[in-house]
Automatic annotation (TrEMBL):
Family: Belongs to the IspD/TarI cytidylyltransferase family. IspD subfamily.
GO cellular component, one term: cytosol
Species of origin: Tupaia chinensis (Chinese tree shrew)
Keyword Signal assigned: no
Protein name: 2-C-methyl-D-erythritol 4-phosphate cytidylyltransferase-like protein
GO biological process: isoprenoid biosynthetic process; protein O-linked glycosylation via mannose
Lineage per the UniProt record: Eukaryota, Metazoa, Chordata, Craniata, Vertebrata
């Protein structure tokens, strides 16, 4: 965190705010959402209409993908990038042998980034954090968060 603060100061970045990470990925996301909701008195954060959630492992995303998930989130409340399956996905039986494989034509791999109307995702995370020790977005659907799977990468 200190190294990032030094970089921000050195290059005089005005639009970057550092938020303390959580113990898990989901807690880190929630910390970021809370910072946006509350606005930090010492920063330029403000509550956005749409928030994009992405991972730092794959930081480079084409602008077109970002625009597509934002537009879809504005229309549907939530959207995520998807990719056609190229690998075979199997379901093992109880003894570990092959039970069946999924039809790749009927399934997609979920990818990042995901975009959400801010109020929708913040409410889902607030409810999930209260109900679950380690919330995941798949469970957030039970809190009324339908996910539009709209972007093929």
């Amino acid at each position: 965190m200190e190294a990032m603060k030094q970089i921000i100061q050195k290059y005089q970045h005005k639009r970057i705010s550092l938020i303390e990470a959580g113990v898990t990925r989901h807690r880190s996301i929630f910390n970021g959402l809370k910072a946006l909701a509350e606005g930090q008195s010492n920063s330029n954060l403000s509550k956005p209409e749409v928030v994009i959630i992405h991972d730092a492992v794959r930081p480079f995303v084409e602008e077109d993908v970002l625009l597509k998930v934002v537009v879809a989130a504005k229309e549907h409340g939530a959207a995520g990038a998807i990719r056609p399956l190229v690998s075979t996905v199997i379901s093992p039986s109880a003894d570990g042998s092959l039970d069946h494989s999924l039809d790749r034509a009927k399934h997609r791999a979920s990818e990042m980034p995901q975009a959400f109307l801010f109020d929708v995702i913040y409410e889902a995370y607030q409810q999930a954090v209260l109900a679950l020790p380690n919330p995941v977005m798949e469970e957030a659907r039970s809190y009324g968060l339908p996910m539009e799977l709209c972007v093929q990468m």
